[in-house]
């Protein structure tokens, strides 16, 4: 028994008994599949390129954004051995490794909406465009909210330096459409919960994420509880990347280093109602794929 | 979680040793660390055997002589850990088996994957850089056994278990652009319960700890050149256990900016980037990136016994054969020197070894390893040779570590997820100082 399951059990025993801990299992988890299709912009090779993102009005999850406020970091990653298709697969599979890249440069936008490729740098060393931007490699451009490397990606695009191409200006488009995922929330085993608690959840028994890949428990860094007054399971299934946006009410918590949580600790959460649909999700902000790691349906009752 | 028990042990030839008040508590600061405490009625020294089964397999360092003891177990996250206390004697005194648990790692530490079989006696102390800055200790299965997330906004290049076995040391510094005025050596307890800092301005890439606890640290040194321009060189400063700082070497002791000129001056003149210390000879070895050279420095006099490489060198790689360029870490072996060569290969980085022939003015390359496909590591990088002839190669910014045999065949590889690089790597056979 993990110490946090143990801790959750101790807490539950204090309340009502250890059997009241709600243990999440793989059968409770949703599943999803699909593709990532990242747009490619052909440019001249070994030539500086003007990048603009003022027309980026929504992200890869189709959430609205304001370019001057929400886009804080522009990053370019070079992959020497991966094709654009390889990168798309690894993004969807969340399996990109550091060794896959051999170059990384970035720029803090500071509210700007355009920059030259040559302005991007790393540790003070700018990209050497004539020598380091060429047709031999794959280049993934990401624009992000926040300035922490690797976090907050909103939109992705390939820059494709191509022999014979003369284009030196890229106007990035919105991100909606990059993710083509289909989720299955109907097939999972929903979880009964008491209207008035206790609501101590333990996910230490989970082994796979919604994609069917091995779940690293340490990746779980967010919990989302959503209430949908008039939405059916099928409605939610079609919009599983937007669950936070379409909810009538949401409660969330940041997590780190734990496999358990008591919903009573959620700010402003006073209890379940028997109407509507309730969704519980576990999320990962450091994963390339924004889909929740775990998603299930809760069934409140007396 | 605390398990208390008291066990009377009989049968030791030196008399029975009573081990009392055994308890275990998982650290809240380092959830992979478990403090095991016990008392004895008479002064004794002991250790804790631990492992995932009652077979144990690992042990903590011996505690100091006394009647009240604490030893820290380091194990992978989310583990049930078996342990027992051992008081060595003519016949060891031991407690019965006990069980404690580790927690779940913080979510911003990366998942590390290995290819090849887990190696039970291989541990590494190194910083993780990129999406998080965290000195860690990793085992041969790719598990993080110890960690400390540093949020100072500086980089960390070296992590080192302290010689007293009670803490981990690391340097919080910046070597890109101007060196940091607020750099420091940080000492963190194995259980994370305390942290001490030694503020040393302008720290550079590397540091060492002597057997007596003295620290030898690389710092950036500025002097005014003959043209009145500022010259950026390096120095080695020692921090004695009582806190006294002494400069024991300066780049100007062995080199002259007017004579030993470099083409690349963006990062200064010598740009020292690697430091080692040999207590048997009482010498430092310092690597200098812009010189593509490594110097052997007498600690007492500050004189350079030899300089191997390019600029400022009195020993060069054999002409017509492989050389090295912009190297980072190195390891001086009995008759050879192993070097992480960042730029000397053909569009790739590599590990390369040169024989060290006494009296010769050229040293010949005798071994090298380049991965397929190639990996280019533009900064950092490390090499460590094991007793069995295997070599551990840390492709720092590429987030990969390879262990290759003497014929150059990889038998173990560790990778990090995108966004996580590594600093310099200290190889060990236990998670504690050796």
Quick rundown:
The complex is a heterodimer of chains A (302) and B (434). Helices cover 14% and strands 32% of the residues of chain A.
Overview of the molecule:
- The complex is a heterodimer of chains A (302) and B (434).
- With 302 residues, chain A is of the alpha+beta class.
- Chain A has helices at residues 3-15, 67-70, 84-93, 129-132, 233-238, 243-246; strands at 22-23, 31-36, 40-43, 50-52, 73-79, 103-108, 114-116, 121-122, 125-126, 138-144, 153-161, 169-171, 179-184, 191-194, 200-202, 222-228, 249-254, 260-262, 277-283, 294-301.
- Chain A has two domains: 3-33 and 182-301, no CATH class; 38-177, Immunoglobulin-like (Sandwich).
- Chain A contains six helices and 20 strands.
- In chain A, strand 10 (138-144) and strand 11 (153-161) form a beta hairpin.
- The radius of gyration of chain A is 22 Å and the shape is elongated.
- With 434 residues, chain B is mostly beta strands.
- Chain B folds into two domains: 5-101, Sandwich (Immunoglobulin-like), CATH 2.60.40; 112-428, Neuraminidase (6 Propeller), CATH 2.120.10.30.
- Helix content of chain B is 1%, strand content 50%.
- Chain B is globular and about 70 Å long.
- The model of chain B is unreliable at 1-13 (pLDDT under 50).
- Classes of the chains: A alpha+beta (302), B mainly beta (434).
- The interface between A and B is large, with 38 and 37 residues.
Quickly give the CATH architecture of the largest domain in chain B: 6 Propeller
Strand content of chain A: 25-35%
How does the major sheet of chain B shape up? Answer: 5 strands, antiparallel
Overall number of strands of chain B: 37
Query: In which range does the helix fraction of chain B lie?
Result: under 10%
> Most extensive interface: pair and counts?
A-B, 38 and 37 residues
Radius of gyration of chain A: 22 Å
């Amino acid at each position: 028994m993990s110490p946090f399951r143990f801790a959750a059990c101790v807490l539950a025993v204090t309340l009502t008994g250890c059997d009241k801990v709600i243990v999440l299992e793989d059968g409770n988890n949703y599943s999803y599949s699909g593709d990532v299709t990242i747009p490619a912009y052909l440019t001249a090779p070994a030539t500086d390129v003007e990048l603009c993102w003022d027309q980026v009005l929504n992200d890869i999850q189709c959430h609205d954004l304001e370019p001057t406020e929400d886009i804080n970091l522009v990053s370019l990653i070079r992959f020497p051995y991966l094709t654009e298709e390889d990168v798309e697969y690894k993004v969807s599979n969340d399996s990109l490794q550091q060794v896959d890249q051999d170059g990384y440069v970035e720029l803090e936008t500071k509210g700007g909406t355009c920059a030259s490729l040559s302005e991007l740098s790393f540790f003070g060393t700018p990209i050497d465009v004539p020598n380091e931007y060429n047709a031999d490699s794959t280049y993934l451009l990401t624009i992000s909210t926040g300035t922490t490397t690797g976090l907050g990606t909103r939109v992705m695009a390939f820059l494709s330096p191509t022999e014979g191409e003369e284009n030196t200006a890229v106007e990035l488009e919105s991100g909606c459409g990059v993710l083509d995922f289909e989720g299955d929330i109907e097939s999972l085993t929903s979880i009964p919960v008491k209207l008035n608690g206790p609501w101590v959840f333990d996910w230490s028994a989970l082994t796979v994420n919604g994609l069917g890949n091995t779940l690293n428990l340490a990746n779980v860094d967010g919990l989302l509880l959503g209430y949908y007054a008039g939405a059916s399971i099928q409605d939610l299934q079609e919009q599983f990347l937007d669950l936070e946006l379409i909810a009538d009410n949401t409660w969330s918590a940041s997590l780190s280093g734990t496999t358990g949580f008591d919903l009573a600790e959620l700010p402003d959460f006073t209890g379940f109602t028997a109407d509507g649909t309730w969704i519980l999700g576990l999320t990962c902000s450091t994963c390339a794929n924004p889909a929740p790691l775990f998603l299930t349906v809760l069934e409140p009752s007396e | 979680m605390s398990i208390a028990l008291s066990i009377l042990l009989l049968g030791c030839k030196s008399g029975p040793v009573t081990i009392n008040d055994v308890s275990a508590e998982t650290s809240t600061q380092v959830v992979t660390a478990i403090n095991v405490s016990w008392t004895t009625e008479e002064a004794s020294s002991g250790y804790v055997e631990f492992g995932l089964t009652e077979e144990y397999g690992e042990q903590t360092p011996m505690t100091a002589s006394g009647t009240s003891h604490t030893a820290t177990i380091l194990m992978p996250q989310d583990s049930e850990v078996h342990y027992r206390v051992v008081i060595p004697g003519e016949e060891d005194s031991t407690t019965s088996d006990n069980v404690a648990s580790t927690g779940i790692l913080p979510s911003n530490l990366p998942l590390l994957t290995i290819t090849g079989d887990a190696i039970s006696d291989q541990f590494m102390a190194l910083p993780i850089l990129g999406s998080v800055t965290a000195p860690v200790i990793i085992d041969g299965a790719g598990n993080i056994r110890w960690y400390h997330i540093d949020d100072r906004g500086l980089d960390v290049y070296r992590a080192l278990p302290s010689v007293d076995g009670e803490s981990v040391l690391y340097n919080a510094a910046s070597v890109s652009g101007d060196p940091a005025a607020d750099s420091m050596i940080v000492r963190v307890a194995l259980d994370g319960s305390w942290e001490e800092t030694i503020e040393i301005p302008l720290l550079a890439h590397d540091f060492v700890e002597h057997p007596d606890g003295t620290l030898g640290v690389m710092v950036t040194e500025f002097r005014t050149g003959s043209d009145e321009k500022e010259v950026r060189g390096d120095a080695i400063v020692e921090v004695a256990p009582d806190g006294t700082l002494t400069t024991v070497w300066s780049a100007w002791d062995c080199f002259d900016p007017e004579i030993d000129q470099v083409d690349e001056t963006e990062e200064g003149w010598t740009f020292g980037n690697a430091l080692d210390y040999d207590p048997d000879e009482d010498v430092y070895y310092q690597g200098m990136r812009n010189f593509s050279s490594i110097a052997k420095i007498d600690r007492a006099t500050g004189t350079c016994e030899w300089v191997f490489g390019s600029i400022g060198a009195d020993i060069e790689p054999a002409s017509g054969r492989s050389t090295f360029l912009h190297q980072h870490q190195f390891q001086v072996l009995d008759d050879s020197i192993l070097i992480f060569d960042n730029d000397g290969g053909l569009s790739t980085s590599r590990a390369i070894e040169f024989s060290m022939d006494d009296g010769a003015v050229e040293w010949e390359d005798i071994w090298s390893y380049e991965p397929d496909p190639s990996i280019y590591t533009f900064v950092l990088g490390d090499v460590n040779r094991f007793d069995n002839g295997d070599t551990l190669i840390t492709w720092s910014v590429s987030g990969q570590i390879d262990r290759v045999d003497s014929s150059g065949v990889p038998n173990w590889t560790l990778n990090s997820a995108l966004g996580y690089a590594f600093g310099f790597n200290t190889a060990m056979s236990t998670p504690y100082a050796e």
